[in-house]
Amino acid sequence: MTTTYDPSNPSYFDESDLRKELTRVYDLCHGCRLCVNLCPSFPSMFNAIDARDGDVEAMTVAEQDKVVDECFGCKICYVKCPYVPPHEWELDFPRLMLRAKAVKVKQKRQSFKEIVTDRALAMTDMSGSVAVPLSPIVNRVIGARDSVGRGLIEATTGISKSRMLPPYARVRFTTWFRKRLRPFISKRRGKVSVFPTCFIEYMEPNIGKDLVKVYERNGIECSMPDGAKCCGAPWLHQGNVTEFKRAASRNVRILATEVAQGKDIIIAQPTCAYVVKKDYPLYLGTKDAERVASHTYDASEYLIKMHKSGGGIDVDFEGEKRQEVTYHAACHLQAQNIGLKGRDLIKLTGAKVNVVSRCSGIDGTWGYRSENYASSKKLSGALAQQIAKTGHDELAGECHLANKAIQEETGESVSHPLQIIARAYGIQEE
């Protein structure tokens, strides 16, 4: 039995070794049960073991795999677990689930539908490049949930016809960035390279615009990494290590050049930031990957770091300020163990901030798949109930995936903390 989450280990893709590791970890989880209420995986695991009077080794392969299939990769169990490395038991449940999915892909045990859905969800740059020029038409189709058009999309791609999907922008973020008039920064306090990732590039460029304007107001010179594409998270979460490493290698090569020029890497999507910080070094194992990871920050994280240790940021908020904000602590942000920097940033404006931390049930692309929609809705519905208990005149959150699920459940739009800061500065939304 190999207790490993390292894909370069020769035993990583060995199924018999994996089954022994699943048994070991399930036995530890069954004895603890601290994570029973986090996701469907743990109740399924505990019920299967309890039905056999606690005999973990009696679980069938199908029962072990059901636990894997129901894991949507929120990583909150890693935050809660008392046995994570460097504990002697070396328990990393999320990475074990990724290993199990990787073994399935490596052994080509996926169904045709799974393969098609994987590719539809992972080819984000191709989809975005096609959809942005046709956004009025595309948005009309994808915005009509449960319609004939969405039914056809579900039938061909496996993406749920009922899920609210983010609309595409008319102009890509990189197009705006290159054409804009850059302000003169008389007193430069930092240099960053803004890695927009798919959501800001194709769907939410206004977040990127506000990020750049807020940074420049605080003396931070912004550039962009030329040629960087999707971080590869969809491939990783589906278990396709080969495609993930290809995406990671390309981006690390580009981002390492930015770091060599004295720039930090800024990412406004927690899932993508987690992947660059945590997964690139593990799966690539190169010094460049480690160097890029050590210079990568979430957008709010960088500003709070500057505020606390870099002489402060501008707190002259003369624009539109909120009295009370409900802030969603995204799962992949919590998994980074950097604190809730978006919350801290909003507090600088004088707003009261309520924190809700339930999972939205999207987590990468898991909640977009038609077979997971009902389970995902239970999670996002519970999150909406928690939000409804708070008083607020604005909803905020850093994860664009979670924000769209919140909007689907509540009917309220959700702002990125940088957008709230921009409005408080008096920066108008374009």
Kindly provide the name of the CATH class of the largest domain.
Alpha Beta
Provide the residue-averaged pLDDT.
94
At CATH level 3, the topology of the largest domain is Rossmann fold
Q: What is the number of helices?
A: 22
Please tell me what the overall shape is.
globular
Rg result: 22 Å
Number of domains: 4
Widest β-sheet, arrangement of strands: 2-1-3-4
Roughly what percent helix?
A: 40-55%
Secondary structure category: alpha/beta
The poorly predicted ranges are none
Order of helices and strands: HHHHHHHHHHEHHEHHEHHEHEHHEHEHH
Beta-strand portion reads: 5-15%
- Biggest sheet overview: 4 strands, parallel
Distance between the termini: 56 Å
At CATH level 2, the architecture of the largest domain is: 3-Layer(aba) Sandwich
3D architecture notes:
The protein has 430 residues and is an alpha/beta fold. Helix 11 (197-203) packs across helix 12 and helix 20 (373-388) packs across helix 21 (400-410). The chain has 4 domains: 15-106; 112-157, no CATH class; 173-308, Rossmann fold (3-Layer(aba) Sandwich); 316-425, Rossmann fold (3-Layer(aba) Sandwich), CATH 3.40.50. The longest helix is centred in the middle third of the chain and has 20 residues, at 241-260. The protein has 22 helices and 7 strands. The chain starts with 14 loop residues before the first helix and ends in a 5-residue tail after the last helix. It has a 4-stranded parallel β-sheet, sandwiched between helices. A 3-stranded parallel β-sheet has the order 6-5-7, sandwiched between helices. Helix content is 53%, strand content 7%.
